[in-house]
Amino acid sequence: MIRVLLADDQSLVRAGFRALLDAQPDIEVAAEAADGEEAVRRVRELRPDVVLMDIRMPALDGLAATRRVTGDPDLGDVKVVMLTTFELDEYVFEAIRSGASGFLVKDTEPDELLRAVRAVVAGDALLSPGVTRRLIAEFAARSKEPAAADALARLTEREREVMALVGIGLSNEEIARRLVVSPLTAKTHVSRTMVKLGARDRAQLVVLAYESGLVRPGWLG
């Protein structure tokens, strides 16, 4: 059972998400929160699998709340998905750097929301491929000069290749086709790369691909 915490200051939004999620046989809403402070408190109490976190909330905004959750070693298994009104909200980029696993627009289709929750738990963020590519393109345009690539030295040549493909927004299935391997093999390479680099999830692996210089703006395929 996938346990979800809903954090949004609009009760109507929470009610809509709860009705959709609770209707699924494999998902349940563990709790709700109306502000960031309450969200962090409930996450620490309940250890949900996924937090759907609104960016703009009173008391403590979703970005600050996400930093508290992802920065707590005891909450390493909790995945945070940001909720936003706009697909390329400027705060989303900082959220990804802070450890969020991805983001969803609030008017996303119900099926996409359900798929996203399941995908994040499976480690397959950043969610929708189309939105992923737009996010990556915008992140690349805003990114600083590449940092030293020392961290890449611990990767094998194949792992660097896989990391670069993750960096341009390819899914495990697309990586498998590109490298002519099975999807399971591709997923294994991605998982090993995340472990070696200490990446919380696939979203952070994308950030690291750009920050290390392994992938550069304009390489989107």
Automatic annotation (TrEMBL):
Bilayer-crossing regions: none
Keyword Transcription regulation set for record: yes
Domain Response regulatory per the UniProt entry, residue ranges: 3-121
InterPro entries attached to this UniProt entry: CheY-like_superfamily (IPR011006), NreC/VraR/RcsB-like_REC (IPR058245), Sig_transdc_resp-reg_C-effctor (IPR016032), Sig_transdc_resp-reg_receiver (IPR001789), Tscrpt_reg_LuxR_C (IPR000792), WalR-like (IPR039420)
SMART domains: HTH_LUXR, REC
Organism this protein belongs to: Streptomyces coeruleofuscus
Keywords: DNA-binding, Phosphoprotein, Transcription, Transcription regulation
Domain HTH luxR-type: 148-213
Origin superkingdom: Bacteria
Modification type 4-aspartylphosphate: residues: D54
Taxonomic path: Bacteria, Bacillati, Actinomycetota, Actinomycetes, Kitasatosporales
Keyword Transcription regulation tagged: yes
Pfam families the record matches: GerE (PF00196), Response_reg (PF00072)
Name of this protein: Response regulator transcription factor
